């Protein structure tokens, strides 16, 4: 009844206008990047017709391709690394009932609110301090450190929803503590683990700040590579690179939302973050 | 079979080792003693209930038998074997959890077969035994379903089958019916008892619901503050409670506190209630007399009854019965439960203010210290 009457109600023009402006502000620049990546001429202001020459430029630019591969590699390794460490941390924290344990749990979430630039500077100081040569390895180490908290938050959420009796049931039915973890707890967590892994992949893949502070000279992660190349004039090839990154990130995000549902869950692990 | 159970109290099973044997079992958390030097023997094939309010230590006792909680003191024997220090996965007991604790990533068949796979039994035998177990709980048609697709009652049956299929020495049930609605709970009580008879496995059933305990158990132990207040057959525990707590916890009881002297209890001035002999009291002790509401008559009293005059305070109609509150002294009000028999018309019911005479047979009054 109320839903129907609301539908009949006139929408205030101001609200519609604000919404339109908001979405235009949000997505028009991105749409422009995508559009001009298909421009047939080297202009960033006039569109002269459809072409894929900038994609060809991108594919033939060995530096850019190396950077893209590097970024995918960093994201994949970081996702796996953060997943292993973050899950271990979540399992440990869920078993600690003391006040100290809860305090430790709160501290592990600090990376979520620490300004990334602070983390970046700190990581740079650490790596140079211990004499570690800046490279893709240092980028990956920094990204893993930064991403553990995301995994821990998601996995702890799923663990909290899981009754402690489930693990006891496994032990009751003949599992050692280790078997209970392997045969029951971890399989139950699979949707959360997949969601968390894909989320970390997407976050790390296009991360600029941490990568900028911790990368070596060559090869550089893609976002850093793009940043340094536009300082010497913007080539439309950058638009093509941006579009590729956009599609990749979106694809991973969609997977992160869909895969847990395929497991027969009503809620995806990402709901924790999107608040849906 | 049931005859054997009823004599297990005495010497009936003295030769065989009890299914469960607890000696001085104690659990303390800091200064808090939750289970206090419990001694208990549960016979083979017995349906035994631990009944008590929340926090009485019944669940802690169950968890110690399962192995999830280490006793502070005392020993646990299962089937004649000391398992006090044995980890849960090597104890010959299985548990039906209150939350069911089903494995959501496995289907019903996978859940029920889980324990057998851990034991390394060959796949054909597992398939057959899982099939039988599902048949037993009438879930054969849901073998391929995920737990998330089942109703509460069905999940409960899966949890039961998953534990029973292992044929443990003892099945531990931690308030397994608590999450079901009343009607389903009643049906499951009957079914659970039938299943227990069929599989002939010792059931140790933990509950706070006196109805469940009375209707299913061969024996009941009433627990309070970590100790067993009374242990016996349901009818004995109900008819002859030995403590004020036991009388109050199982069913409703009219408690009349007073001073004992010369074969009767003085409840207040001018009201002396005769009690049966054989209690060995001298005189002057503070005691309570307990009479069950359904043992008190308001009409058709017989000469051998104890008679007390009173005034009806209120009456409430419950369909099959009518419940009256009757004041027999300024401070003493008794609850009386009267059957609404076919020959009685609604006009036969007492109205508030009516003067009545209450009566009960002397043997129905229980003297509690």
Q: Encode the helix/strand succession of chain B as letters.
A: HEEEHEEEHHHEHEHEEHHEEEEEEEEE
Helix proportion range of chain A: over 70%
Instruction: Say how many strands of chain B there are.
Output: 19
Question: How many domains of chain A?
Answer: 1
The beta-strand count of chain A equals 0
Radius of gyration of chain A: 23 Å
Largest sheet of chain A: none
Average pLDDT over all residues of chain B: 89
- Through-space gap between termini of chain B: 36 Å
The SSE string of chain A, one letter per element, is HHHHHHHHHHHHH
Contiguous uncertain segments of 5+ residues of chain B? 1-14
Question: Can you give the helix content of chain B as a percent range?
Answer: 10-25%
Overall pLDDT score of chain A: 86
Subcellular location (chain A): Cell membrane
Membrane topology (chain A): Multi-pass membrane protein
Family (chain A): Belongs to the binding-protein-dependent transport system permease family. CysTW subfamily.
Keywords (chain A): Cell membrane, Membrane, Transmembrane, Transmembrane helix, Transport
Provide an overview of this structure.
The complex is a heterodimer of chains A (276) and B (369). The radius of gyration of chain A is 23 Å and the shape is globular. Chain A has 276 residues and is an all-alpha fold. Chain A has helices spanning 2-8, 13-36, 53-60, 62-95, 99-108, 116-129, 136-161, 164-172, 177-205, 209-214, 222-230, 236-262, 271-274. In chain B, the strands form four sheets. Chain B has a six-stranded mixed β-sheet with strand order 6-7-8-3-9-10, with helices on both faces. Chain B has two domains: 2-241, P-loop containing nucleotide triphosphate hydrolases (Rossmann fold, 3-Layer(aba) Sandwich); 252-368, OB fold (Dihydrolipoamide Acetyltransferase, E2P) (Beta Barrel). Chain B has 369 residues and is of the alpha+beta class. Mean pLDDT of chain B is 89; it is low at 1-14. In chain B, a hairpin with a 3-residue loop joins strand 15 and strand 16 (321-329). Chain B: This is Spermidine/putrescine import ATP-binding protein potA. Chain B: InterPro entries: AAA+_ATPase, ABC_SmlMolc_Importer, ABC_transporter-like_ATP-bd, ABC_transporter-like_CS, Mo/tungstate-bd_C_term_dom, P-loop_NTPase, Transp-assoc_OB_typ2. Chain B: It comes from Nostocoides japonicum T1-X7.
